Amino acid sequence: MDNPFEPAAVLADAQRKEALDDWGPGEFEGPLRVLLADYARADLNAIGVHILRSGIVHSLRMRLRTQEWIRRHPEILDEQVAPPIVVIGMMRSGTTLLQRLLAADPRFVCAYGWEVVEVAPRLDYSFTGVDPRIAVSEAREGKSRELAPELFAIHPMYAREAEEEIVFLADAFLSHVPESGANLPRYRSWLDTQDFTPAYRYLHRMLQFLQWQKRRRGVQGRRWVLKSPAHLGYLDLLRAQFPDLHIVHMHRDPRTTVASGASLNATLHAMHSDTVDLHRVGAQWLARMGWTNDRAMAVRDSWADDAARVTDVGFDAAVADPIGQVARVYDAIGAPLNDEAEAAMRRWLAVRPREVARPPYALATYGLLPEQIDERFTPYNKRFRSYTEGATRG
Predict the structure, then answer these.
(1) Kindly report the CA angle at 148 between 318 and 111, in degrees rounded to 5?
(2) What does the pLDDT look like over 224-263, one tens digit per residue?
(3) Of 40, 152, 205, 377, which residue is the least packed, with the fewest Cβ within 10 Å?
(4) Is 91 helix (H, G, I), strand (E, B) or coil?
(5) Which of 303, 249, 286 is nearest to 373 (CA)?
(6) Residue 9 belongs to some domain of the structure
(7) What is this structure's pTM?
(8) CB-CB contact of 380 with 303 (8 Å)
(9) Residue 377 structural domain
(10) Cross-referenced PANTHER family, in alphabetical order (predicted)?
(11) Tell me: the pLDDT tens digits for 195-213?
(12) What percent of the chain shows pLDDT beyond 90?
């Protein structure tokens, strides 16, 4: 194959594998072509080409399969997505902890790891018995632990735990996920000028589809608990799709979060390329996180109801008193943290997956200085110092 990222061949592969050809509504081929063109220029090794191309084909297969489910069951698009609770914040700021605590409440629903890996079941699935996608996802989890232990240590993904929905934005090919795994300067710059509305419309559609599936399986919870650091730069579009959402904004010292994010990106780059410029990875991640946080603060400044719409939570406070911080969220949304929900959260805290030790990382590894981080995040640190230093608001 001369160019493994040739668009027509990639699209045709997905259609052949699913024996389907209806992509459904929403423009995605334009962004896909920009991404594929930059992948074709990237310095990828053979494993990287295989992993990244296979991931795109899988995304396209899920789009085809989802559209066929909707064709057969048009009532999917009648699903009303209740106002979600959305946990945001930079990577390693405690977003996973807060999401999974909230998701323990049986009144809420989330996207589990196994649902994220294969959002659309096979077309012959009858929604009876144990969903076969769970075993597939558990096998994938085990394989990741074995073959990519460093990546799993930095960013573990568990089949039966709540996961972030960033994959649905990536499936629309308007996403910052690809730049985390390869040097894609053209796609990266192009993204900064794009309207992400189609990606957020696709996210809404996929939540409708997941909610319909959950109801078929007898799941009673209705209010979604979402989570993704990716939403930070697009709070206006997120709210456009979910007007009555409530945001939980997690905060931590950017010196720690930027170093951790650079470490994850460097690990992903190394899986896909034989040479990785760690300083370039660090510079790109610092720029992206600064850009993202600037946008988040600007959108929040434009909201007259920001104080009622957003609950700010510090990482240290969440670790020290997770139930107490979650109670603040319940107070903000006007819902009781009842005994059943609190008991479920405490059970989760007792049995949650124990993460293995992460590989060491330091800002200097990525060509960054603490003073650089402080300077770039001066407005953020000034605004949220009470949270990044571990204090809580009364």
Answers:
(1) 50
(2) 999 999 999 999 999 999 999 999 999 999 999 999 999 9
(3) 40
(4) coil
(5) 286
(6) no
(7) 0.94
(8) no
(9) 79-389
(10) OMEGA-HYDROXY-BETA-DIHYDROMENAQUINONE-9 SULFOTRANSFERASE STF3, PAPS-DEPENDENT SULFOTRANSFERASE STF3
(11) 999 999 999 999 999 999 9
(12) 88
